[in-house]
Amino acid sequence: MQITSKLPNVGTTIFTVMSAMANEYGAINLSQGFPNFPTSERLNDLVTEHLRVGHNQYAPMMGVRELQEQIAHKIKLMYGVEVDPIQEVTITSGATEGLFTSIAALVHRGEEVIILEPAYDSYRPAIEVVGGVPVIYQLFAPDFKIDWDAVQALITERTRMIVINTPTNPTGAAFSPEDMQALERITADTNILVLSDEVYEHLIYDGLEHQSVLRYPKLRERSLAVYSFGKTFHKTGWRIGYCVAPPELTAEFRKVHQFNTFSINTPIQYALADFLKDPREYLELPDFFQKKRDFFLQQLEGSRLKPLTCSGTYFHLFDYSEISDMPEREFAAWMTREIGVAAIPVSAFYSNGHNNGVIRLCFAKTESTLKAATERLQSM
């Protein structure tokens, strides 16, 4: 039997590779983006409560109404925007399903999708598997600044969508109001959609405000915004997120969603609806993670790893040029084997494997884990 792959150039993800290496060599795993500290017992108890009262059958395809309403309330509180919870909010199996479904529902064969790289690694395969054409705009260290005029020059009559991510994985950069206004300008009077990956909306530092597409009326009308409860509440294994979009885009999104995952874990939806009633659970997150970032940097003071700017996410980039001139993948593998700390090469987030001489480290760990890791990193 002959099989023609839809993704012939896709292999095992770098996250799986580096986590496997960390296990093999007994390295501290700062590569994959998952917290290793305890999560909310109150949220755990709420799940148990809803299991016991019988919320164990299929949820509605678009999501449990109570959770949709609490999300709409959160959006109003955060961004001052009224969202129709029933017509504009869909609960998804994690943010990755929300991203894939958005692309599958709205990108047709031969249509172009602009990606800003380095980019989260699910974007390009999702575009390719539905027959879309990825169009790459590259950003470079140390500041990964976007030239929006250069992005506009990539737009053609076949451009269907632009994918953005803020705060950005892997760079830790956060879009400014000027970035959003520029995006608004280059998409005005076009049929271009915006897919906005905002899973780190609550992980933003130094007094900055998250610039959601929902804040900008002209962007909101053409955008699908995707979020993650797993990233927000440190429960990545729960695989639950949501997509917010205008009714006409949501209708198309749900046509695919209903035949993809159909509905999402019922007791967890009810538990999250109750949990969101206390806004402190998400409003206090920037301070919580900024303290972790600052502790991590303090422990690395004097090392030969040079930190780049981190305005958001729970990842930090480091320039290792004072230590080695190895390509990023080789350096990350060497560091895992010889130093005992696993990292992600940022080149893995570029389609062409571009090397900036930079690695990504995750600081969503306990202080004891970060201290142990930085002691090893200081030895380089």
From TrEMBL:
GO terms for molecular function: kynurenine-oxoglutarate transaminase activity; pyridoxal phosphate binding. Keywords: Aminotransferase, Pyridoxal phosphate, Transferase. Residues 28-377 form the Aminotransferase class I/classII large domain. InterPro entries: Aminotransferase_I/II_large, Kynurenine-oxoglutarate_AT, PyrdxlP-dep_Trfase, PyrdxlP-dep_Trfase_major, PyrdxlP-dep_Trfase_small. Pfam families: Aminotran_1_2. Gene3D superfamilies: Aspartate Aminotransferase, domain 1 (3.90.1150.10), Type I PLP-dependent aspartate aminotransferase-like (Major domain) (3.40.640.10). Its cofactor is pyridoxal 5'-phosphate. One of its GO terms (cellular component) is cytoplasm. SUPFAM superfamilies: PLP-dependent transferases. Belongs to the class-I pyridoxal-phosphate-dependent aminotransferase family. This is Methionine aminotransferase. It comes from Flavilitoribacter nigricans (strain ATCC 23147 / DSM 23189 / NBRC 102662 / NCIMB 1420 / SS-2) (Lewinella nigricans).
